[in-house]
Design brief:
The chain has one domain: Luciferase-like domain (TIM Barrel, Alpha-Beta Barrel), CATH 3.20.20. Helix content is 40%, strand content 18%. It is built from 10 helices and 12 strands. It has an 8-stranded parallel beta barrel, surrounded by 6 helices. A two-stranded antiparallel ribbon has the order 6-7. The protein is globular and about 60 Å long. The protein starts with a strand and ends in a 7-residue tail after the last strand. Keywords: Oxidoreductase. This is Luciferase-like domain-containing protein. It holds the Pfam family Bac_luciferase.
C-alpha cells in the first residue's frame, strides 16, 4: 500500500507569527511541496475563532504557483457558507488548478465552544442543524458542478431554475472530516456520521486519534459502506497529524503545547490534555513511526501540520 503524504501550509500561522511566517513564505512552502514530490498541499478554515487567510482565496494563489500537487481543504466549515457561492468559487479554483483539487468539508467541532457558536451567529447559520445543512449543501454543490438546471426544495435550502455554466475541470472529490472518537458520542450519532461519509464523500479525514481510535472509526465507516452496497475501497481514509521534529523530545513537546494554546486560544498544560498527545513530537524517526502506526490502522492519506512559527524550515 502506497502512503500519500501532504503538507498543511497553515494559513493561521501568518496571522499568529507574521514576522516569522509571512504570506510569501506560505506560498514558497507550497512551491516546495510541489517541487519535492509530496502528494498534496492543504489549508484549514475558520472565520473568527481561529483567524486565518481565507481558504479558497489562498489555494487559488497557490494554484498559480504550482503545477502538480493536489490542493485541498482540511476542512472548510461548510454550514458557514452559501452552497451556491461555494460551488462557484471551488469550480473557479479547480479550473485555475487544472483539476487538482479536493474539497474537504466539515460541520465544525463536534462539541461547540463559544467561539464556534459566535462564528455561526456571524454567518447567519444554524448551529443545531449544521449536519443536515451540510448534507443538503453537498447535493447542491455536486449538481451545480454537473451543470444541472437545479430545482431544489430542501428543509434548509430552496433553489429554483438555478444553473451554472462554470464547471470544474472534473467533479472534484469531496472528503468529509469528522472526529467520532471525541466527546463520548452516542453510537447513533457515530453511525449517522459514518453514513454521511458513505453517502456523500470520496474520502474521510480525522485528527487527534490514537491508532486504535482510528481503526475503530474507519471500521465503522467500512461496515456502513458494505451495508449500503458501497465498496469501502472507494473511500479514501485520511488523517491530519500535528507534529514537531526536534531531537530533544522535551523541547518538542513544550513547543507543541505553546503552539496549540496559541492556535486554539486555550490554556492546556500538556498535549495529552489537549488531545494532540497522540501525534508525534520528537525525532524524525518518532514521526515516521507514528505514520506507520496509523497506516497499520488503515490510514492511507496523511496531512502533516507542523507546530511552531518556523513552518518553512
Amino acid at each position: 500500500m502506497r502512503l500519500h503524504i501532504g503538507i498543511n501550509v497553515n494559513t493561521r500561522v501568518p496571522v499568529l507569527y507574521p514576522d516569522a511566517y509571512p504570506e510569501r513564505e506560505l506560498i514558497a512552502l507550497a512551491e516546495t511541496v510541489d517541487a519535492e514530490g509530496y502528494d498534496s498541499a492543504w489549508v484549514g478554515d475558520s472565520m473568527f475563532q481561529k483567524s486565518r487567510l481565507e481558504a479558497v482565496t489562498t489555494l487559488s494563489a497557490i494554484a498559480m504557483r504550482t503545477e502538480r500537487v493536489q490542493l485541498g481543504t482540511a476542512a472548510i466549515i461548510a454550514p458557514l457558507r452559501n452552497p451556491t457561492w461555494l460551488a462557484l468559487s471551488w469550480a473557479t479554483l479547480d479550473r485555475l488548478a487544472g483539476g487538482r483539487t479536493i474539497l474537504g468539508v466539515c460541520v465544525g467541532a463536534e462539541q461547540p465552544k463559544p467561539g464556534i457558536t459566535g462564528e455561526f451567529e456571524a454567518a447567519g447559520a444554524n448551529l443545531k442543524t449544521r449536519g443536515q445543512v451540510m448534507t443538503e449543501q453537498l447535493d447542491i454543490i455536486r449538481r451545480l458542478w454537473a451543470g444541472e438546471r437545479l430545482d431544489f426544495d430542501g428543509v434548509h435550502h430552496t433553489l429554483h431554475g438555478v444553473q451554472s455554466e462554470l464547471y470544474p475541470v472534473r467533479q472534484p472529490p469531496i472528503w468529509i472530516a469528522s472526529n467520532p472518537h471525541v466527546g463520548h458520542l452516542s453510537p447513533r450519532l457515530r453511525q449517522r456520521m459514518a453514513q454521511r461519509v458513505v453517502d456523500h464523500a470520496e474520502g474521510w479525514m480525522t485528527c487527534t486519534a490514537s491508532p486504535d481510535e482510528y481503526r475503530d472509526s474507519w471500521q465503522e465507516i467500512q461496515d456502513v459502506a458494505r451495508a449500503s452496497d458501497r465498496d469501502p475501497a472507494s473511500i479514501a481514509p485520511g488523517y491530519q497529524m500535528l507534529c514537531r521534529i526536534d531531537n530533544n523530545r522535551t523541547n518538542a513537546k513544550a513547543i507543541g503545547v505553546e503552539f496549540v494554546n496559541r492556535y486554539y486560544h486555550s490554556a492546556y498544560h500538556s498535549l495529552d490534555e489537549a488531545r494532540w498527545g497522540e501525534d508525534p513530537y520528537g525525532t524524525a524517526e518518532d514521526c515516521v513511526q507514528a505514520l506507520h502506526a496509523l497506516a497499520e490502522a488503515g490510514c492511507e492519506h496523511f496531512v502533516v501540520r507542523f507546530a511552531g512559527d518556523d513552518q518553512a524550515e
